TrEMBL record:
Catalyzes the conversion of L-aspartate-beta-semialdehyde (L-Asa) to L-homoserine (L-Hse), the third step in the biosynthesis of threonine and methionine from aspartate. Its EC number is 1.1.1.3. Residues 352-425 form the ACT domain. SUPFAM superfamilies: ACT-like, Glyceraldehyde-3-phosphate dehydrogenase-like, C-terminal domain, NAD(P)-binding Rossmann-fold domains. It comes from Kitasatospora kazusensis. It is an enzyme of class 1 (oxidoreductase). The keyword Amino-acid biosynthesis applies. Belongs to the homoserine dehydrogenase family. Pathway: Amino-acid biosynthesis; L-threonine biosynthesis; L-threonine from L-aspartate: step 3/5; Amino-acid biosynthesis; L-methionine biosynthesis via de novo pathway; L-homoserine from L-aspartate: step 3/3. Its cofactor is a metal cation. PANTHER family: HOMOSERINE DEHYDROGENASE (PTHR43331:SF1). This is Homoserine dehydrogenase.
Length: 429
């Protein structure tokens, strides 16, 4: 075994960072045996000194992250600060110093991943980020390495535990969105400002990372269509139940049938109860991968939290430290296909459309003719009426977003249609 320790700088000591520091300290001997060299936590950069951090060696704390990265003797930098800056500049500085980087920063990787990969390659070091997408679930490495010889066509997943918890509570208890969010906040699943989760920004960043790796092309968060779940109502949940479905916030990445483009989107969707993802409960994550040779694969587990995310960070730490010991690096970013991202209005999917209409003869025929006029075929229709009011639920066959939008605009112009109550996509047919 190599005797000189590999020195590690830890940037960030919050929920995840403190757990990483604790495990590195308590399991130092096991980590050394797995790597083939001792690992030494050389410093921990924090925003504010003086806070109590149980289990974290106080003498390692510093508020000067840049000085820590620039020391010159750091072999690996672990970045769990989050955000774009100063994280980006700290990572680029680490590369210039010859240090490999392990990151959990999905926002940064989804925005500037290509630039960071190029900088790592130029410096001859590693950039690993298993923890950026699904916490403890091994997903990045299987896509990047285990399936490297296969052709992945689709990645469908629940990649945000907060939103899955909220939708699960709405489904199982009948709670409204606000009530479910309040419970998620009380339990620590939702932040004080839950916008990144409930509006789909977190899931969109993860979808960009997954699509880029799965399809060997450059995809950024700006390429991902995004809808949150704030508009999902108890009526939507009830409609899904009536169809034998459950509502989930899904990240969906697909290679076009002609192989000439890719799509990445995040939005609520009705999912049949028979689909494996439908049974994913509480704050758990799961990702369904469809590959030509391997077939359908599912990855499931806790997608967030200090210990689960630290597990993924430390797995990457072991991998990059082994590479350091062996004088090599891991797989480089693969973007050889250079496939463009298709805009959402060209994406083909199924829809559940709920209408409030007049309860009189001929309304269904009017509505059906509007769908036909725009080339959107109807799969099923369910109508309920009483005392002059009626609800009409239409489930379509596959159609483009543009065609459905034009259909809805025309429906709103009909005198017999009082309101387009809800529109939701249907997946997993």
């Amino acid at each position: 075994m190599r005797t000189r320790p590999l020195k590690v700088a830890l940037l960030g000591c919050g929920v995840v960072g403190s757990e990483v520091a604790r495990i590195m300290t308590t399991d130092a001997a096991d980590l050394a045996a797995r790597i083939g060299a001792p690992v030494e936590l050389a410093g921990i950069a924090v925003r504010r000194a003086g806070r109590a951090r149980p289990g974290v060696p106080e003498h390692l704390l510093t508020t000067d992250a840049q000085a820590l990265v620039n020391r010159g003797d750091i072999d690996v930098v672990i970045e769990v600060v989050g955000g774009i800056e100063p994280s980006k500049q700290l990572i680029l500085s680490a590369f210039k110093q010859g240090a490999s980087v392990v990151s959990a920063n999905k926002a940064l990787l989804a925005k500037d991943g290509a630039e960071l990969h190029e900088a790592a390659a130029a410096a001859g070091v590693d950039l690993y980020y298993e923890a950026a997408v699904a916490g403890a679930i091994p997903l990045i490495r299987p896509l990047r390495e285990s399936l490297a010889g296969d052709k992945v066509n689709r990645v469908l997943g629940i990649v945000n535990g907060t939103t899955n918890f909220i939708l699960d509570k709405m489904d199982t208890t009948g709670a409204g969105y606000s009530e479910a969010l309040e419970e998620a906040t009380a339990l620590g699943y939702a932040e004080a400002d839950p916008t990144a989760d409930v509006e789909g920004f977190d899931a969109a960043a993860k979808a960009a990372i997954l699509a880029g790796i799965a399809f060997h092309t450059k995809v950024t968060a700006a390429d991902v269509y995004r809808e949150g779940l704030t508009e999902v109502t108890a009526a939507d949940i009830a409609s899904a139940k009536a169809m034998g479905c459950v509502v989930k916030l899904l990240a969906i990445c697909e290679r076009a049938a002609d192989g000439e483009s890719v799509t990445a989107r995040v939005h609520p969707a009705m999912l049949p109860l028979s689909h494996p993802l439908a049974s994913v409960r509480e704050a758990y994550n799961a990702v369904f991968v469809e590959a030509e040779a391997a077939g359908r694969l599912m990855f499931y587990g806790p997608g967030a939290g200090g210990a689960p995310t630290a597990s993924a960070v430390l797995g990457d730490l072991v991998a990059v430290c082994r590479n350091k010991v062996n004088g090599t690096t891991g797989p480089r970013d693969s973007v050889y296909t250079q496939l463009p991202a298709k805009p959402m209005d060209q994406v083909i999917t199924r829809y559940h459309v709920s209408l409030d209409v007049d309860d009189r003869a001929g309304v269904l025929a009017q509505v059906a003719s509007v769908f036909a006029e725009h080339g959107v075929s109807i799969d099923t229709v369910r109508q309920q009426g009483r005392d002059g009011d009626a609800s009409l639920v239409v489930v379509t066959h596959r159609a483009t977003d543009a065609a459905l939008s034009a259909t809805v605009d025309k429906l709103r112009a009909l005198d017999s249609v009082r309101d387009v109550a809800s529109i939701m996509r249907v997946e997993g047919e």
